Amino acid sequence: MSGDLKWNKIMGAALATAFVVIGVQQVTGAIYHTEAPEKMGYFVDAPEEAAGGAAEAVLPPDWGTVLPTADLAAGEAAFARCQACHTVNAGGANGTGPNLYGVVGGPVMHAAGFAYSDAMAAHKAEAPTWTYDQLDQFLTAPGRHVPGTKMSFAGIRDTQTRINLIAWLRSQGSGGFAVPAPDPARQPGAAAPAEAAPAEAPAPGSEQAAAQAGGAAGSAPDTGPAAQSTTQATPAAPSAATSGNHSPR
Questions:
Q1: With contact defined as beta carbons under 8 Å apart, do 114 and 149 qualify?
Q2: How many separate domains does the chain show?
Q3: pTM for the structure as a whole
């Protein structure tokens, strides 16, 4: 008998525990009841680029000013991210990318034996030389400057880092490529080139106005009433039959 009561107690305790767990779940659900939001997520009011107005044009670097003061050590450090694909020593082997010795000022597709992409070949027809501007634009975003290039590098967004890198690459076999003279038009804050002002009309009574009026009168036929009346008043020439002169037969 005592054994039966023992099992009854065990079963009763298990049922009581189950009831407590279920009860706690029901009470917790009632206390912390939440409703689904009408709109999921957060609405961010971000105006479109067109609504914000035209983007300010970014002037290319003034190479005559920035190259002489570039940090070559920083440029060499920046090249560390390129070493996985490129070599830069004279006569170095091509890797995933071409050897870059003498690339600054050199021809596009300058590395012999490297299998350049068709996109780079098409770019060479448009811009055959790796000028400072071309390298700067390519290093900023290779895939945007040469769509379809095999170079998967995302690019260097920091302008000073690109300047330092280009200056260091120039020191690796491209020292003969001249640094241009400073260009004030590329200096920060340089004013945009002014549009040509429309030519002013000559003052009435001036020699220029008289010359223009005389030229117009000499070049354009007079079709006014006076000219028409003069034409009508001019008698017609007598015909051959009236004058007695006959043309030879």
A1: no
A2: 1
A3: 0.56
Q: Is 117 among the domain residues?
A: yes
CA 243 from chain centre, in angstroms, equals: 83
* Amino acid of residue 101: Y
Asked if residue 94 is part of any domain, the answer here is: yes
What average pLDDT does range 102-121 have in this prediction?
Answer: 94
Quickly list H helices, the chain: 2-31, 63-66, 72-78, 118-126, 132-140, 142-145, 159-170, 207-219, 225-233, 240-243
List the CATH number of the domain containing 100. 1.10.760.10
Closest CA to 100 of 159, 165, 20: 165
Q: What's the DSSP call for residue 26? A: H
Q: In this predicted model, what pLDDT tens digit does every residue of 29-74 receive, in sequence order? A: 767 656 655 544 444 444 444 334 444 457 899 999 999 999 999 9
| Residue 149, C-beta contacts closer than 8 angstroms, at least 6 positions apart | 117, 119, 120, 123, 142, 143
On the question of pLDDT at 134 being above 60, the answer is: yes
Domain that holds residue 118: 63-178
Cα 109 from Cα 132, distance rounded (Å): 16
What are the pLDDT digits (tens) for 156-173?
A: 999 999 999 999 999 999
Q: What is the pLDDT of residue 217?
A: 45
- Bin 30: left if φ > 0, else alpha if -120 < ψ < 50, else beta: alpha
Does 199 reside within a domain? no
**Two tokens at 42?**
């957060």
Helix and strand totals (H; E) in the chain: 10, 0
Provide the sign of the torsion angle of the four alpha carbons 217, 221, 224, 230, taken in this order. Answer: positive
**Structural domain includes residue 186:** no
